[in-house]
Request: fold
Amino acid sequence: MSQPSNLFLSIGKPVKDEYGRSVGKIVSFATAPTGKFDAAFIEQSDGRFMKQPMEYISFNGADVTLLSSIKSKAAVFCDQIPFIWRKDQALKELNDKHKIAPSLYQELHASFSNVLSQLRKDAQIIQDEAIQGVTRCEEELGILSYSVLHLELQHEIGKISDDQYKVAFTSLQDTIKRTTQEKTDLETIKNKLSNVLLGDTPIIPEPKAVVGEQKSKVYAEKVNEPADLPEPPVVVYVKEVQKAGI
Reply:
């Protein structure tokens, strides 16, 4: 999304995270000597301040969104690590084919290895943060489930009115949805980084074309297959949201 022509007009505007939760409001910007905007200063809802790089701030009309640093960094690592690894493999193939000097290969290979090592260390840190985030979301969902239970009990015995119940129930359900979505995103990040760190990039071979006699043979085999094969099992996945009472 493009930034407004005058970002200073965003001062005082509320900031939310990607899940719609209130973060605070923009109070100032950090600029370079060239005039480029480097970061935004945000007064948080609890009165504290934080500085966020501009790449983590999204402007869409009157809406200002603080993007997830974990998601942004993970996306970079998921692109860079496989890319550097492929370059190193291509370099090895050139060396095996004697198309480059051995000394040049050793120099470039060492450079790629050092970069990969550092990227993997940084990616591991982000993966650990994602794991911690998943744990935090699970704890929050557990608390929210108890909140819904006690709300239902209090409404059932007449301690709170129907209007109070509806307002509170809607608020809890919205919070459960946001937390569940965040947990899902963090789990996805954790799994993607795990695959990248393990080098798990399976290549699925394309099916070979069947022509002539081979095609006729395959077709004949399919025709002669027994028609009373058992039906494949049906697997039903139950979302975490349903467990939380949505």
About this structure: The domain at 7-67 is CATH 2.30.30.240 (SH3 type barrels.).
